[in-house]
Design goal:
It is a single chain. With 483 residues, the protein is of the alpha/beta class. It has a domain of 279 residues: Amidase signature (AS) enzymes, CATH 3.90.1300. Helices cover 38% and strands 13% of the residues. It has an 11-stranded mixed beta sheet with strand order 1-3-2-4-6-5-10-11-9-7-8, with helices on both faces. Strand 10 and strand 11 form a beta hairpin. Helix 9 packs across helix 12. The two termini are 13 Å apart. The mean pLDDT is 97. The structure holds glutamine.
């Protein structure tokens, strides 16, 4: 039963082959048995899950239908869940029970999804290895000595290990697509504004976007359908109708124009990954796509720009964690300054503190023009490159990451080495574009992802291309040994 995809679960529930309660019990038992090896959950919500499953079964018995009705999922632990710990992977929020549900959580619950738990993540979503979590590192089910990627590493490891079919995640600079690539999943970062950020604890507000992590494009379509839509509570949410994503999966790829940026295939890329990416292009050509070399000339400036803008926004967003209103407070503060200093010094981990300092520096008078303003100008150039490219092509294709998942601890002493691994993902966040990563093969037994980018609001096109690719390849069906 644990091998079923969301689409298969929906059919099984509709055909009364099993109930949501039965399925939920199987998966909760599987999590209890296997998750100790992975550490992919911060909190389990078994009781809530069983209640939700029974309620979903009752709704189905009354004739209600829906792809998510009775479907087991989990939420990255930065989506607020009412009455349930919402830690953001941080000691700072270890004791925080959210007083309300995030819009994404409320929408999925209303659609009948069953929440099995809250998944592990890098502290405040800062990282690409899931090693900065206060709750310990997450292991990659493909090789327990390797990282699962981050910051949505818990969601990715849990879905890859078949502990559940799909999970929510967020992507500020790659945190859906990169862990998808590292664990052989399909992950979609929607257009900025497509999915409400209300109740999603902020890292860098102008870059953050929630989206689905699942095994197939078909399942990403189902989960995204439940997450997307306008929300008056989020002023950056966009009031555009949500198309039927599942209906878009079957379009023909005849004549689809794929752009492959020449800058993607530079020295830093593992040549074995480059070969797998070229293979995926050939596969799409067989399906009727035409390929064109394109150029994204400002891509080289994206990492420095991102690592100014994201920390700058983080330093502002995280100022609310002051030990006064909620979250961690130090013992016996001497005075107010001592309370601030020690609450933040003890409550935040090293990577979060590093980013707050970088961000505060970049925003300070005298440095603002030199760093923050310049980074914003680069951001516009990156966006302009994409706009020019999308005049010529329908999607852009390339690797999701320059290397496969590294060993646990391998980049801990050198944060910049980890930042450089984000080179292919962060440009979509800077421009606000939708992007998808899907399985494209293996290197040394570790999964490799191919990334597709599309114009604003063309999530349907990404899902269509990925689904057609998955109908003709079987990389996404491979299961890690032992799971
Ligand atoms: N690795 C990037 C960072 O550390 C992206 C993280 C994310 O998307 N949340 O900022």
């Amino acid at each position: 039963m644990h091998q079923l995809t969301l689409a298969e679960i929906a059919r099984g529930l509709a055909d009364k082959k099993f109930s949501s309660e039965e399925l939920t019990k199987v998966l909760l038992a599987r999590i209890a048995q296997l998750d100790p090896q992975l550490n992919s959950f911060i909190s389990l919500t078994g009781e809530l899950a069983l209640q939700q499953a029974q309620a979903a079964d009752a709704r189905r018995a009354k004739g209600e239908t829906g792809a998510l009705l009775g479907a087991p999922i989990a939420h990255k632990d930065l989506f607020c869940t009412q009455g349930i710990r919402t830690s953001c992977g941080s000691k700072m929020l270890d004791n925080f029970k959210a007083p309300y549900d995030a819009t994404v959580v409320a929408k999925l619950a209303a659609a009948g999804a069953v929440t099995l738990g809250k998944t592990n993540m890098d502290e405040f979503a800062m990282g690409s290895a899931n090693e900065s979590s206060y709750y310990g590192a997450v292991k990659n089910p493909w090789n327990l000595e390797h990282v699962p990627g981050g910051s949505s590493g818990g969601s990715a490891a849990a879905v890859a290990a078949r502990l559940l079919p799909a999970a929510t995640a967020t992507d500020t600079g790659g945190s859906i697509r990169q862990p998808a690539a590292f664990t052989n999943l399909t992950g979609l970062k929607p257009t900025y504004g497509r999915v409400s950020r209300w109740g999603m604890i902020a890292y860098a507000s102008s870059l953050d976007q929630g989206g689905p992590l699942a095994r197939t494009a078909e399942d990403c379509a189902i989960l995204l359908q439940g997450m997307a839509g306008f929300d008056a509570n989020d002023s950056t949410s966009i009031d555009e109708p949500v198309p039927d994503y599942s209906a878009s999966l079957n379009g023909s790829l005849q004549g689809l124009r794929i752009g492959v940026p020449k800058e993607y295939f530079s020295e830093g890329l593992d040549p074995r990954i480059a070969e797998l990416i070229h293979n995926s292009v050939k596969e799409l050509q067989k399906l009727g796509a035409v390929v064109k070399e394109i150029s994204l000339p400002n891509m080289q400036h994206a990492i420095p720009a991102y690592y100014v803008i994201a920390p700058a926004e983080a330093s502002s967003n995280l100022s609310r964690f002051d030990g006064v209103r909620f979250g961690y407070r130090c013992e016996d503060p001497k005075d107010l300054t001592d309370l601030y200093k020690r609450s933040r010094g003890e409550g935040f981990g090293a990577e979060v503190q590093r980013r707050i300092m970088v961000g505060a520096y970049a925003l300070s008078a005298g440095y603002y023009d030199a760093y923050y303003l310049k980074a914003q100008k680069i951001r516009r150039l990156v966006k302009n490159d994409f706009m020019a490219a999308f005049n010529e092509v329908d999607i852009i294709l390339g690797p999701t990451t320059p290397n496969p998942a590294w060993k646990l601890g391998a980049k801990n002493s050198d944060p910049v080495a980890a930042y450089l691994e984000d080179v292919y993902t962060i440009t979509a966040n800077l421009a606000g574009l939708p992007g998808l990563s899907m399985p494209a093969g293996f290197v040394d037994g570790l999964p490799v992802g191919v990334q597709l980018l599309a114009p604003y609001f063309q999530e349907g096109r990404l899902l269509n291309v990925a689904h057609q690719y998955q109908l003709h390849t079987d990389w996404h069906t491979r299961t890690p040994t032992g799971f």
